[in-house]
TrEMBL record:
InterPro entries: ABC_transp_unknown (IPR019196), DUF7088 (IPR055396)
ABC-type uncharacterised transport system domain: residues covered: 175-493
Top-level taxonomic group: Bacteria
Record keyword Transferase present: no
Positions of the DUF7088 domain: 38-137
Keywords: Coiled coil, Membrane, Transmembrane, Transmembrane helix
Coiled coil: 523-602
Transmembrane annotation, as ranges: 605-627
Pfam families according to UniProt: ABC_transp_aux, DUF7088
Keyword Ribosomal protein: no
Species, as recorded: Methylophaga sulfidovorans
Protein name stated in the entry: ABC-type uncharacterized transport system involved in gliding motility, auxiliary component
Length: 637
């Protein structure tokens, strides 16, 4: 009886302890967790911690979340908890500089009115009378306001960056000034800086790049014929400097010599540069130049961009569907490339944390002999890249031919370089005026006041929206989702060169789709064999047609072709060869599928089956040890 009572009492105490433990944990350790992700995306990065510690003035964060409306959306409710827990971590790490308020904006309440005033997004939920608010408004002591209108679950991988950027913009009043010079309409037509959009709906829209730059810096668009760059510019970004006047190049030269920071995007063949079509001369658009360079300046700084070729790379190629050209199947387009960590300079802060850059028909740089600067490649092609004459791309671009004729090389070509050091002016006599005479500007410099700092990139298309960002309509608002680190590279470069590097370590943490490298390698190897066989078949077809053409062809009065026995035999042999080759092609594809299925089975076994098997073996071993121990005890009795 006593043993039974003790057992019941022990069970009750165990239940009480279990409930008490859960209450304590839920109340005091809600945000405690072990982060086992590859890049610790659920842990505040050192960059965020440093920004929080450097805050001088307090800021207020108001998290608006309609809890009742979110009950019907379990996944969003879970994400809201994740956002709230992360905000609490920010508050704890700020040493009291962040004041966090959790708001539940009920209908017709003051909180709902204030959320609307901040511009937060409310969305209707099916079956719920109340709209859902799920956003953040931040304010500082000088009436600065920054918001996240709605937390998109699809952007969870950028959550820390978005929050830290909001805090950084509120706590950092010393925004750098950046000038932009471009022969392209990067800012759209008739840009309205107050509205952040073009005045006419029919005009060219501003590039998404410009909106991103304006979030972080004070941006001024400078004319392409500028004669002197203001010293107030902390950095200048030159995009596709096609046919810039000598006076502008001279102004850039003097700006750099005076200590200004320059980032130049040039291109041997800029796909984004669309020449205007002339109805009277259809060939004019094809013949129009689409390249840009700053040869005089680059040569003085110790490097040059090749004018004759573009870089093709099978190892980093992007799969593209060209419709009928590729039988409506995606193939490796060797001129569009996804650069990954292996292509980046790991010793440079600008590129060390990047994950992916998308480039299109990129060029390359050559480092000159006897240069006085230190030239550092920032990102490069793989060591299997191939050079292609840019005229091939301009006049007869055939993606299939590029792939089948691809011959991997052994050299890695620099696509972006950084030049630092002492240099002299490229225009010792000044620049030509409108009248044709050479003239120096006031305060002309013959050599740099201090070491110059210049970055040059041999691709303009990487700034085009389609290569780094996608937009989605969300209840009437356009939301941008980054698909690569292209814009991060540019902003990192500006921040590193100007000394405002607060967000560099955080910006590139956002992950994109992680490819299955083994599967891609299998596919690429099989496709290579497939294309080789296909090319062999085409050559056989061409040779046979040429042999038949050389044979005597007789025609009857009806015009029908009469084939000799020799011709008929050759055609029959060719058809047999073609059928065998087609079967070989099918075998290649079947073997590809078998290899991928085999790899898939192995991964499933290791990820799903191995752990239960190990647990089962451990249980069997433990049971066997207990039985053995029990038998041993009995034998000793």
């Amino acid at each position: 009886m006593n043993k039974q009572l003790l057992s019941v009492t022990g069970l009750i105490l165990a239940i009480i302890l279990f409930v008490s433990f859960n209450i304590v944990v839920n109340g005091n350790f809600k945000s405690a967790r072990v982060d086992l992700t590859e890049d610790n995306i659920y842990t505040l990065s050192d960059g965020t911690i440093n920004i929080l510690k450097s805050m001088k003035e307090p800021i207020s964060l108001r998290f608006y979340y309609t809890e009742k409306a979110a009950q019907a959306l379990p996944s969003l409710k879970s994400y809201a908890q994740r956002v709230q827990e992360l905000l609490l971590e920010y508050q704890r790490a700020s040493n009291g500089k962040i004041r966090l308020f959790i708001m539940n904006p009920e209908p017709f309440s003051a909180d709902e009115q204030r959320a609307d005033q901040y511009g937060l997004q409310s969305i209707p939920i099916d079956g719920e009378s109340d709209p859902l608010y799920f956003g953040l408004a931040g304010t500082n002591e000088i009436d600065g306001v920054e918001t996240i209108p709605f937390f998109q679950p699809e952007k969870e991988d950028t959550l820390e960056y978005d929050l830290t950027k909001l805090i950084y913009k509120l706590s950092n009043n010393n925004r750098k000034t950046v000038g932009v010079i471009s022969s392209l309409q990067v800012d759209g037509e008739q840009y309205d800086p107050l509205k952040g959009e073009v005045a006419s709906a029919d005009g060219a829209k501003p590039w998404a790049m410009m909106a991103q730059l304006r979030q972080m810096f004070n941006v001024s668009v400078l004319p392409t014929d500028i004669r002197r760059i203001p010293s107030s510019m902390d950095a200048v970004v030159v995009i596709h400097p096609k046919e810039l006047p000598e006076s502008t190049l001279y102004a850039i030269d003097q700006y750099v010599l005076a200590g200004g920071k320059l980032i130049a995007f040039v291109d041997p063949y800029a796909e984004i540069d669309k020449p205007k079509k002339d109805p009277d001369n259809p060939m004019s658009a094809m013949l129009a130049p689409r390249s840009s360079n700053m040869e005089e300046l680059f040569t003085t700084w110790g490097f040059k961009r090749s004018n004759t070729d573009v870089v093709a790379d099978r190892k980093t190629a992007t799969k593209v569907d060209f419709g009928a050209k590729t039988d409506y199947q995606p193939i490796d387009y060797v001129l569009w490339q996804k650069l990954t960590k292996d292509n980046f300079n790991k010793d440079e802060r600008i590129t060390s944390a990047l994950r992916q850059l998308n480039v299109a028909t990129p060029g390359r740089f050559e480092i000159l002999d006897d240069h006085t600067t230190k030239i550092t490649p920032l990102f490069s092609s793989s060591n299997e890249a191939m050079l292609v004459d840019k005229r091939v791309v301009q006049f007869r671009n055939d993606p299939v031919a590029l792939l089948t004729k691809y011959q991997p090389g052994t050299i890695s070509y620099p696509m972006a370089v950084r030049a630092q050091g002492e240099v002299k002016t490229a225009f010792p006599n000044g620049a030509k005026t409108a009248s044709g005479e050479m003239k120096k500007m006031p305060g002309h410099l013959d050599k740099a006041k201090k070491d110059i700092d210049v970055i040059a990139i041999a691709d303009v298309d990487m700034l085009d929206d389609r290569f780094w960002v996608e937009t989605q309509d969300f209840y009437g608002k356009q939301l941008a989702f980054n698909t690569s680190n292209n814009i991060d590279f540019l902003i990192n470069a500006i921040e590193d060169m100007t000394g405002s590097d607060g967000l560099i370590s955080i910006r590139s943490r956002a992950g994109f789709s992680k490819p299955f490298y083994k599967v891609i390698a299998l596919q690429r190897d099989a496709e290579k064999r497939f294309r080789t066989k296909e090319r062999e078949l085409q050559n056989k077809l061409k040779e046979t047609q040429q042999r038949i053409a050389r044979m005597q062809v007789q025609r009857s009065g009806s015009g029908k072709q009469i084939l000799s026995a020799e011709q008929q035999k050759e055609i029959a042999e060719f058809r047999l060869t073609a059928n065998k080759t087609q079967q070989q092609l099918r075998d290649v594809q079947a073997n590809l599928r078998k290899d991928i299925d085999k790899l898939d089975a192995q991964l499933k076994f290791f990820n799903i089956g191995l752990v239960p098997i190990l647990v089962g073996l451990l249980a069997v071993f433990t049971g066997w040890m207990r039985i053995r121990k029990r038998n041993k005890a009995r034998s000793q009795q």
